[in-house]
Amino acid sequence: MEINVLNIKGENTGRKVTLNESIFGIEPNDHVLYLDVKRYMAAQRQGTAKAKERSEHAGSTRKLGRQKGGGGARRGDINSPVLVGGGRVFGPKPRDYSFKLNLKVKALARKSALSYKAQENAIVVVEDFNFDAPKTKDFVNITKNLKVDGRKLLLVLPEVNKNVYLSARNLQGTEVMLASTINSYKVLNADVLVMTENSLKTIDEILNK
Hints:
Layout: E1 2-6, E2 12-18, H1 21-24, H2 30-44, H3 103-119, E3 123-126, H4 136-145, E4 153-157, H5 162-168, E5 174-178, H6 184-189, E6 192-196, H7 197-207
Parallel strand pairs: 1-3, 3-6, 4-5, 4-6
Antiparallel strand pairs: 1-2
Helix pairs in contact: 2-3, 4-5
């Protein structure tokens, strides 16, 4: 699949890039995508929910009533879960929700996500660019020139570019990522991918190991 390379004015440079069929042209695997998105979302959870159980409450351990014959449920001390203000039975505890996926599974998921975007013609390739200073207005002009303004945008860069990142940071629905850290969730969550020429080379190197 060939795509025209545009400049930041939205003009065709006359050059074309060929998207690697082994990355952008595979049959997407939906189950692997599900697993990788689930892994990403699970890793975002703080896992800090905590409720006090019976032994963690401060209160007297005096037995409040007789074991039998009271007409109600058995209850021991004031911290009993059957009483208002008592401990919670099997309450949440701090935990790590993240889980592991094999490297090949994660690579297949990223290939599947990128293939979906290629099928949707939602990939724009632009020549490498830079800003002399952070300026949101300049970045907005680029999105208008590329006709991707008003859509969820994921800009993929080959390396850290502070000026470009700061220029896009305040724009809602716009995210900047490195080609080396791209993941399935971010790709699927975007309406359109804007990729620089060198970021394509980086993705080829990473996913074709």
